[in-house]
Queue: 4 jobs
Job 1
Amino acid sequence: MDAEIFGLVSIEDLLLLAIDIVYVAVGLVMLLVAKGFNDLITPYRIDEQLRDHDNPALGVALCGYFVGVICIYIGAVLGADILGVPTWGEFFKILGLDIAYALMGIVALAVCRVVVDKLILHKFSVEKEIIEDRNVGTGAIEAGALIASGLIIAGAIHGPGGGWDTALVFFLLGQAGLVGYSRIYDRMTAYDLHDEVECDNAAAGVACGASMIAMGLIVLNAINGPFVSWMVNLTDFVLYTVVGVIALMSLRKGIDWFFLPGASLDYEIAHDRNLSAAWIEATVSISVAAMVFAIL
């Protein structure tokens, strides 16, 4: 009777359920902390933009930011690897470390926003496009980059054997990979990404943002798991990144042939501003990257 309640649920199960509930509650707190931090580092008020100005571009970007934060938090929590029921001292020690990783991740995502502004969408001001012009395409690319960065950070901190130094190195490498991928993506399309996005082409932004999420999943697969050695882990990172770029670029051609027969994906996005075509590219790219992550 001491070990079970009505012979159905053990006390240990209830304690583990209580721990899970605490983790979910802390995750919600992390979202509020992330929102407050975002308010502090931006010259605009999020609540004012969303409530009074009905800014859809900021709403899209903010959703990507929140998903990125939760990706990092989940990566930290899964990396804790709690076996059995810990003592309260052990639990709060692990929880404190998870929170510390999540807070550092929030700061890292602020760095990612600067990377988007200065290196990915470097031909115009991202803040101006989102706040003044309410450009949904720009918001979608920032959202995609933030989610991709959250996935990369989650992979960097997930496995045992690494530490703050490995997490930092792979975050920086991941950012470099996203920047490089964005440049290749721009070159491989038949249109100028900056011109289309600056002209309020939401379809171009959605397609590019989703493609960056797919790239983030592929990089996550490369760095997720235990840290073996710099040689092994860096080799995996380079190999998966190169193969991922080739696969995603080839996949765009496959979308033309199999999912949009008789049409050109680039033409539909650039000329017709066809959001349906953009969502098809987004869905196929992320789905294929998710399968790669789950299977390989």
Note: The mean pLDDT is 87.
Job 2
Amino acid sequence: MNILSIDTSCDETAVAITYNTKVLSNTVWSQTTLHARLGGIMPSLAQRAHKEKIDFVVQKALGTRNLALDIDVIAATVGPGLSIALEVGIKKAKELAKEYKLPLIPINHVEAHMLSPFANSKSEFKFPALGLVLSGGTTQLILVKNIGNYKVLAETVDDALGEALDKAARLLGFGYPGGAILEKIAKNGDPNKYTLPLPLINDRVKNRFSYSGLKTAFVRLVEKIKNPNKQDIADLAASFQSVAFDHIEKVLNFQIRNSKLKIRNLLAGGGVINNIELRKRLRRATKKYDMPVHFPYNKKLNGDNAAM
């Protein structure tokens, strides 16, 4: 079954063609440079850019394929995401489905991130599994009993992990998007140089993620250091990133240990999963349980895209 899928959930205009779980084409037009000048995503600008590019991206993804002959289904992200950005992709998908008399499938963006390791994969996926989605807007740990049968085990009560990393980068003087810059700077830093509080350390129920307290502590720490040099900034970046990832490991370990089910795999998706240090942490955390971690075959599938 050939599916033409559309995703305009935030600041990427994305269209893909897939055959079952094989990715035939995956076109993404990024708006990052447009929003970087403003220090963050401007919803009205994102909507306008989606409208300008959607037809171009659809045609580029199709290539020489004939939509009338080669496509069986249309799919579109319906949420969560920026509502005025989402409506551009939904409208286009409806137009195509109506014009070519094709079924239209609504897609949940978080579920798509969670299942993105399936794309082009030859791995054997066994259930029940855990799904970990870490992005700029989502931090969730999900029990995957089977495809379509899910239970959220833990989620953020304030900032998402990606959002927290971006804010930390901004406090250190870096622009948007800051998470990737923070990772690069942190490589040269000492994660033990500064002490920051581990979120929810006294919380006995490990079903929550929280980054607001850590962010506040980081603000105070940065304010205390007058005229920080290059090494100070690297140490601050490493310290914040380390504690943020410690929190993920803490909740993940608790949920695995206390599960009444034999968890077979960990599926990881979302933009923050591109962080190399985080990937190492996830492999380390699951190794003791003899649980393989599955990441998308291509790092581009961690960001917003339509193939997932």
Note: The first helix runs from residue 32 to 36.
Job 3
Amino acid sequence: MKIFNKIFFFAALLFSAILTSAQITVTSTDFASANDTVRTSLSANVQGFDFATTGTNHVWNYQSLVFDSQRLDTFFTIKQVPPVFLLTFFSVANLATKAGVQQFLPGVEITNVWQFVNKGLTNYRDWGYGLIVADIPLPLRFTTPDLLYNFPLNYNQTYSSNAFLEYPLPGVGHISIARNRQNHVDGWGSLTTPYGTFQTLRVKSKVIEKDSIYIDSIGQGISINRSFIEYKWLAKNQKIPLLVATVDSILGTFVVYKDSLRSQTVGIPGNYVSGQSVYPQPFNESFYYHFCAKPDKAVKICLYNAEGRMIY
């Protein structure tokens, strides 16, 4: 009986290890639905991190990522978005969320961006954007959507899409976006970030995009040609990619990853300073921050508001 128990025990350990390192399959149910909220951290200080390496049963360790800012994302039904965008997207999209302005039309000042997607049983498609530019709403809908995911997602799967939109600017000209996306599920394995360790699928997307604004009065257009790679790590029941690393020819490299609420009083690594204090607490119009810096180290101080947006 003792020998049987030992065999059963080691067999159970072996089976558990196999399950822990097994390749997962990602489906539509693993993504967010309406009224879900997720917190993300953004970091542009990613020098020294290798995002390109991949493989089967691979180990990706990005535990030492340090965030620059955080935000809380909410997923909305189409009926919950500003009414000015409802008519354009009601027939094609079933979810909307706020998008990062740094990802859209570099060089154009935009204060608010909504992203409209359709999450279905067989795919996840980006149908376009609702922009607020100088208090003017611009509903930008693709005539053919950008295919982000085909379900079920499994290792070595490939798929692609060509998305295009053109929107008239009365009295000015028109704006257009032409995007080609080539997707490849090029790896699976264990991902570690400051949020934790998970079994993941890795999707690599090569994107070539041309963003244009044509001005009627001068008969010329301004074009921005972009090429970027998105590395996305997906896991079961996580609502969004656990980590997205974007390597952009214009914007450089930045990372967005799912995270917990972090302390945002001071943006200084502890090994750079000591004796930190902030007073008075709470404060109204002004406060004092005291620290002792090591003499050979640069110091960066960041001030965040309650929504996690860096304001200074």
Note: The helical segments are 2-20, 83-89.
Job 4
Amino acid sequence: MRRAEIEDKGSMQNRIYFLKIRCRLFWQNQRDIFLRMVAHRSALLGGIIVSLFILLAFMAPWIVPHNPFEGDLFKRLVPPFWMPGSTNYLLGGDELGRDIFSRIIAGAKISIWIGFLSVGISILVGTILGAFSGFYRGLFDELISRFAEILLAFPFLIFAIGVMAMLGPGFWNLIFALTFKGWVEFFRLIRGEVMSEATKEYVEAAKAVGQKNWLIMMREILPNVIHSLIVLGTLRMGYMIIMEASLSFLGLGIQPPMPAWGSMVNSGRPYMLNAWWISTFPGLAILILVLSINLLGEGLRDILDPRLRID
């Protein structure tokens, strides 16, 4: 066997060996995070409730007791099951005789999808721009940073209302309105983290051995800042769900007959004195889901941030 073949074989064995070590360390790290999660009561409670909402949302077509789009005028404004005059509607009926409980479950899928998509796109855009700005600096950093500062000058809800007024209601228009400004928070986080990490010794060592800049960002820097990104993304998801509900409440988000929680709250405003359940139960769904997401995000911050970790 030639010497070159022996060296190639040895190099391949070393790569496989280090890959096995990385996989072992990765799964050990995930197990430690899971055990800390179980020990953190508020994070565990938030995670269970959020998981329950996700499960209900994606199983909605099979578990809703009634069609959320079809109404029965004979059951118009019927009260919840514990009140006199109730029917087989668990949480009562709305102004068109539709089952509120079924509409809440169906609306959960819309809110969760909008939260995931808007935060996911914001993370992708903010991470790419923030990594390049923090690593390379220069004119590109100046332009993107000034544009981000201009967007920060506008209150989020007013900015989203303006975008939706120009584009019109719709699912993807709503996603665009939320992500057009939503990426700024992630851009600022990643830019600051990359600027801090780029001055450290392990980055200098990677540059010294001739590693390419994009590989340094992907393999060396981003894995060290991903935990901060996860925490911020979790917290911002609750905020995006509130923004979607606010825009739907104003008539600029998801349009009827789609069962969006914000529009359900709005539709019950004229009946607050004699049919309070139309607005109350969708509002409670928003409250519980967003509170659970915030509990999960705060718990992940305590678990993943080494400066806050108490062993």
Note: Residues 3-39 form the longest helix (37 residues).
